[in-house]
Specification:
Distance between the termini: 42 Å
Number of helices: 5
Shape: globular
Number of strands: 2
Structural class: mainly alpha
Oligomer: single chain
Order of helices and strands: HHHEHEH
């Protein structure tokens, strides 16, 4: 099989992440879901999280949920409209 370069346009990026956010099997392998607790633990050792944290590329909101559970004010942003719909539907 021969591989080729993919031109990542904004539309292709949205399509890619929409697929992941709406596929239950893929939804479970988001970085924030798998490693968010560990990342948050390391961050809190070095940074006093106060004010508002922006979760850029929030996906379906796994890491956003972890921040909120720690009483950290958070804004969730993503380029995938379907991911944002999931965040809003789950009232994250």
């Amino acid at each position: 099989m021969k591989y080729h370069d993919i031109e990542w346009t904004s539309e292709r990026i949205k399509t890619f992440w929409n697929y992941y956010s709406n596929n239950p099997a893929k939804n479970q392998i988001y970085f924030g879901k798998m490693f968010g607790d560990g990342v948050l633990k390391i961050i809190k050792k070095h940074i006093n999280l106060k004010g508002t944290v922006v979760d850029m590329g929030c996906g379906p909101g796994h890491f956003t949920q972890k921040l909120i559970a720690q009483n950290i004010t958070c804004i969730a942003i993503d380029s995938s409209p379907q991911s944002i719909e999931i965040v809003n539907k789950n009232k994250i």
